[in-house]
Amino acid sequence: MLPYGRQSIEPDDIAAVEAALRSDWLTTGPEVDRFEAAIAERAGVEHAVSVTSGTAALHVAYAAAGIEPGDEVVTTPLTFVATAAGAALHGAKIVFADVDPATGNLDPAAVEAAVTERTKVIAGVDYAGVPVDGTALREIASRQGALFLEDAAHSIGSTQDGAPVGSLADLTTYSFFPTKNLTTAEGGAVVTADADLAARARAFKNHGLVRDKAVQRYPDEGPWHQEVHSFGLNYRLPDVLCALGTSQLARLDAFVARRAEVKKAYDEALGDLEGVDIPGVPEGAAPAWHLYPLRVPAERRRAIFEAMREQGIGVQVNYIPAYWHPVFEDLGYQRGMCPVAEDYYRREISLPMFPGLTDHDVERVIEVTRKVVAG
Q1: Counted domains in the chain
Q2: Which residues are catalytic?
Q3: Where along the chain is the active site annotated (predicted)?
């Protein structure tokens, strides 16, 4: 079965991990500092906080934003549930806004209609690797006195008008899961240009511990002393995984380039199929394609999905609208709230997309897709 996504591990990655294993540090050591500095540089900001997953990154980012019960977070339903869950776990009310039918990204007009005086964060998701309209979303957030968070789990390596994803929002979160654009096995990061947001993120991911005597309440307790001033969790990414991430980051441009080649081949081969839509790209965007979201006739999507899997093409569907999950249904959210996102989901199939795809693999995917979709 040809998977829809897969990590790319080379000897340099293995050597980096082995070196970390042979060092004096397995966690919270020099490889963490090195990886965070490299991620911050790639994002075009001063601060990067590594964490244990993309989900942890969202939870940490919402903590840094000061989300509390009664606050509202406006976000998209066309995402993995973690984008909403990370805020809900801090007590926020999630307000879902609809998406742009061309890209699957959060529609600024829908966000404008959804914000209230209680809106604390607007959280856009770079669906499939395509950057959200950061200019519009940040402007709306600023007018409301809110923060703009960019869930860039799909899009490290993407740019908008030449600016890297990571520099476009108040807070940006990355995921380094194996299918993502680079991997640390499990892992993620929060990046920001704001020193205060970075400090709050770093505290929350490390139990809320305060070691700086200048701000401790009881600094004379002893040289071992540390305090917790606000609750946090242990989301520390270990040195071993950070070593893998730094090695992977050196090949990110090559990963992005190969993904673009695969995307172009799919576009050229599948764009003429009746009833099919290929992914759109906004002006000025240079996506690092994490997914290739093909849209097929809704009434045939399941049959197409099953037929392609039977022929060895490991397609996927991304994503079930977040509020369709029973956890949101039980809170009163109802189907039909975001019709564009729901239509996108009903038609979407993700074709294999990863740097290790050979030209032969791509030709095979195209051949099977054309045959199955054409009926």
Answers
A1: 2
A2: 180
A3: 180
